[in-house]
Specification:
This protein has 176 residues and is mainly beta. It contains 2 helices and 8 strands. It has an 8-stranded antiparallel barrel. The longest helix is centred in the N-terminal third of the chain and has 12 residues. The model has no long low-confidence stretch (mean pLDDT 82).
Length: 176
């Protein structure tokens, strides 16, 4: 018997098969273990100060699988009676805090569609063409109940027209 063929002959032995079955029967198989994956879905609405304009509004819908977070975001900043910059985009990020049902901190980055809107009586000029923006964010959430809590949201949009950023505070609904 050559040294290259003896493992295959040994594996085909009925005694080895019975011994392996007896040893492995008492250990749980990985497919039978409960899943350790953690998923969550939440929606956030927040308002707060921004730069260079005075006020910002943010709305997000996020999905988390383990530590990866995918977020759809609408952010707007502007004056009450004047110009508004709006972005709609997708961000991918990560949960950066240990797993907890009480709170969570996530960060993300992505791309979005940025529009500049004129509102008011003197807004006779057409809106300029949209541009592409690089979106960044960080969100901290504190659960008050299993499906409702407070959020602090730091966001930014780097684009060719007018980059903006801000901090917004609000509520989230969903599962961390």
């Amino acid at each position: 018997m050559s040294p290259l063929t003896w493992p295959t002959r040994l594996a085909s032995s009925p005694l080895i098969t019975i011994a392996a079955a007896a040893l492995l029967a008492s250990t749980p198989a990985a497919a039978q273990m409960p899943s350790a994956h953690r998923t969550g879905f939440w929606a956030t609405g927040a308002i707060g100060p921004t730069h260079p304009y005075k006020i910002g509004i943010v709305a997000t819908a996020a999905l988390r699988y383990n530590r990866v977070v995918v977020r759809a975001r609408y952010a707007s900043t502007g004056e009450f009676s004047g110009d508004w910059f709006e972005d709609v985009g997708m961000l991918v990020g990560a949960v950066v805090t240990p797993t907890s049902p009480h709170g969570q901190l996530t960060v993300g980055a992505g791309v979005g569609h940025v529009r500049w809107r004129h509102y008011g009586i003197l807004a006779a000029d057409p809106d300029p063409p949209p541009s592409v923006g690089f979106l960044v964010d960080a969100e901290g959430r504190l659960a008050l109940t299993p499906f409702l809590g407070l959020t602090a949201y730091v966001f930014g949009d780097l684009n060719s027209r007018l980059s903006f950023g801000g901090v917004a505070f609000g509520l989230f609904v969903g599962k961390l």
